[in-house]
């Protein structure tokens, strides 16, 4: 497990120092044998995946699948990191029309994963929403730990925004630009982090919205401390009925690979949960998977944003505060979609429809979302997938 120490930073020359103490969590090196184990595991995994991914890329370059991008471009700033570009099926490539643009960032624990993993999603979103989707790339740990991948994304994002050959809608600028950024898992962390960098945050076309999909948003808690906040359902078949998350065996090695020793774990560029509200895009949407060990930090992040100014959005129904009798009745299974074996505090109200918890003010939740695939159960109805949003209405940015 990752070793963490708490160090108190204190300015003794400040008469208010006793009131300004801040606990800083820093990354500590694990024991030597644990280092060897993590290194062997990660480099072994990458050595196995490398040839497999190369063969897949070679095969698909000769016979592109249906989800294949319209273009794959490289930029001088990062020639080793190609960018995949998806135009809507109905778009006339000979026209001068511009499009709202969504940047996506793939996941993989900061260490593995490939842009190709999201091709089908990117293609479907481009076609159904009539937007330009651009899949960004970044260097992977352990060879390239934090913040290398973050600055790769910064360089590529700036290069793409400056590329006049792409039909990016440049008619409106911040804070109402028609660009947005989305990330999956580790990519969600990077999407929220790159949005904070001064070169991106002050850019005229800075993303007006960020969407985190089952994101890793707070690394200040080691993986074994996140596991108790993961719900599970005894009614599901193995292994989904287990209190253990499959990610728990991988997460410590991913953390060791990505986070340098001595790094402050609450650095908002590493743990965007701790980012100042005004450092993030004007609109933020958070989506989590019910049976994911990362779901609770998504809920905490959304609640924190709500307390700092995000409230229930237009067209949502406010239900009583979590401490009320009705909320307790729902959480104990009196409403639809009650959960078995759930010991999570501050979790969502798992009922049908779209509801807002008044005490948190977060647009959330759950039940059945048509067409959404549950990342845990694989059900097409989306049972068990829940969304948490602030005033953000992600698709509204693309509606014209």
UniProtKB/TrEMBL annotation:
Key words of the record: Hydrolase
Domain Alpha/beta hydrolase fold-3: residue ranges: 103-309
Residue ranges, compositional bias (Basic and acidic residues): 9-22
Protein name, entry field: Alpha/beta hydrolase fold-3 domain-containing protein
Gene3D superfamilies noted in UniProt: alpha/beta hydrolase (3.40.50.1820)
Segments forming a coiled coil: none
Gene Ontology molecular function: hydrolase activity
InterPro entries recorded: AB_hydrolase_3 (IPR013094), AB_hydrolase_fold (IPR029058), GDXG_lipolytic_enzyme (IPR050300)
Span list, region Disordered: 1-22
């Amino acid at each position: 497990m990752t070793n963490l120490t708490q160090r108190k930073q204190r300015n003794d020359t400040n008469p208010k120092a006793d009131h300004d103490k801040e606990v800083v969590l820093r990354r500590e090196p694990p024991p030597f044998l644990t280092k060897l184990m993590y290194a062997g595991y990660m480099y072994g995994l990458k050595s196995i995946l490398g040839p497999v991914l190369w063969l897949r890329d070679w095969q698909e370059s000769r016979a592109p699948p249906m989800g294949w991008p319209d273009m794959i471009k490289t930029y001088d700033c990062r020639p080793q990191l190609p960018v995949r570009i998806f135009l809507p099926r109905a778009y006339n490539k000979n026209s001068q029309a511009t499009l709202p643009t969504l940047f996506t960032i793939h996941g993989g624990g900061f260490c593995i994963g490939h842009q190709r993993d999201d091709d089908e999603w990117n293609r479907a979103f481009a076609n159904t929403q009539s937007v330009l989707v651009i899949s960004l790339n970044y260097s992977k740990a352990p060879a390239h730990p934090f913040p290398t991948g973050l600055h790769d994304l910064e360089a590529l994002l700036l290069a793409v925004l400056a590329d006049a050959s792409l039909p990016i809608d440049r008619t409106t600028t911040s804070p109402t630009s028609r660009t947005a950024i989305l990330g999956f898992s580790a990519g969600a962390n990077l999407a929220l982090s790159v949005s904070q960098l001064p070169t991106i945050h002050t850019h005229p076309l800075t993303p007006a919205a960020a969407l985190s999909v089952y994101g890793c948003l707070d690394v200040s808690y080691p993986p074994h401390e996140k596991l108790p906040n993961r719900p599970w359902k005894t009614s599901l078949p193995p292994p989904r009925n287990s209190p253990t998350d499959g990610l728990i065996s991988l997460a410590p090695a991913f953390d060791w690979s990505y986070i340098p020793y001595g790094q402050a774990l609450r650095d908002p560029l590493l743990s965007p949960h701790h980012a100042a509200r005004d450092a993030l895009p004007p609109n933020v949407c958070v989506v989590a998977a019910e049976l994911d060990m990362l779901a609770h930090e998504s809920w905490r992040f959304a609640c924190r944003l709500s307390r700092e100014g995000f409230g229930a959005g237009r067209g949502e129904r406010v239900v009583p505060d979590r401490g009320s009798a009705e909320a307790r009745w729902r959480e104990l299974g009196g409403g639809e979609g009650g959960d078995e074996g759930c010991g999570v505090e501050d979790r969502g109200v798992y009922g049908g429809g779209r509801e807002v918890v008044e005490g948190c003010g977060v647009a959330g939740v759950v039940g059945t979302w048509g067409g959404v695939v549950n990342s845990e159960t694989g059900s097409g109805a989306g049972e068990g997938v829940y969304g948490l949003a602030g005033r953000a209405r992600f698709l509204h940015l693309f509606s014209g």
